[in-house]
Specification:
The protein is 0% helix and 49% strand. With 130 residues, the protein is mostly beta strands. The termini are far apart.
Amino acid sequence: QVQLVESGGGLVQAGGSLRLSCAASGRTFSSYVTGWFRQAPGKEREFVAAISWSVTTTYYADSVKGRFTISRDNAKNTVYLQLNSLKPEDTGVYYCAVVGVPWGAYSDSYYFEDSNYDYWGQGTQVTVSS
């Protein structure tokens, strides 16, 4: 089992920044992908960003490209999501998730689907006011 705990959410004005953290504990895969997803009220959960264990591969949804940055510190078993230039439409619960499959085992689109992820955190709320 892998336990994931997100933190760093909060209320921020449009244009502001937040840094989310996802700390992993328990079983660790020798190589895995960590993704961030978000869910706005009344909407389906959507892919935000993902990063490979080796950090050589990152991927972003078009809606956040250039504003969000995903990174990881493997020594700390922690993945970060830096949110800059926040917009009200970025509001939602942000979840981190892990899939025990290295990047490249499947097509890129595999890692954009939440149903393919094995472990999930409880989520952290991000609210952006206009």
